[in-house]
Amino acid sequence: MIDNDMIVVETKSECDAAIIWMHGLGADGSDFPPTIPYLKLPEELAVRFMFPNAKEQAVTINGGFVMRSWYDILSMGNGREINEAQLDVSIERISALITKQVESGIAPGRILLIGFSQGGAVAYETGLSYIAKLGGVAAMSTYLPRPIEDINTAAESTMPILSIHGKQDDVVPLSLGENAVKQLQMKGYHPDWQTFSMAHEVSIESLTVLGRWITERLSK
């Protein structure tokens, strides 16, 4: 099922779990549906996968070129200077999607957020700040867009977090992923930090680990 804002893939006619998966900068919601088979999820899981499209807007680091982005990135480096107002709009949008799933009857604990690169930054902040404890957040090849002390961390520190990163990532350096994990640990969270021999991408091996993590979260 496709609408103007997202692609939805359901593994059963009636679903009792939801996964909201955010793409990276310049991509769109069609980026990750083809990876679902590589997750090797149990056939009995009734999951609604939601792949929202970021809005089209100018991105400063790409010469002001208009592309799909969750927020503008003003400069690169060891950190990221970003448009925080646009980030907040994206967080509000994903939070609204979560709330809609809860209203449809899916428990917050059976809702997972997954994000790659810029989408992972949105997944981090949304999961940490959402009003109810979610089933977990999987952040791939990404970073915390703001210092964790600036995030309203409403989520319990027991919320499962999977952090995946490529050792050869030259877009989001490994050090940024490590820094996010350290900040989470300082706040009392216990992220599962997994690194792989890959660049700024998704590998079969990393999808296998992600699939196991999803299965553990949703088979309970």
From TrEMBL:
SUPFAM superfamilies: alpha/beta-Hydrolases (SSF53474). Coiled coil: none annotated. Keywords: Hydrolase. Residues 6-211 form the Phospholipase/carboxylesterase/thioesterase domain. It comes from the Bacteria. The keyword Transport does not apply. InterPro entries: AB_hydrolase_fold (IPR029058), LYPA1-2/EST-like (IPR050565), PLipase/COase/thioEstase (IPR003140). Gene3D superfamilies: alpha/beta hydrolase (3.40.50.1820). One of its GO terms (molecular function) is hydrolase activity. It holds the Pfam family Abhydrolase_2. Belongs to the AB hydrolase superfamily. AB hydrolase 2 family. This is Phospholipase/carboxylesterase. It comes from Neptunomonas japonica JAMM 1380.
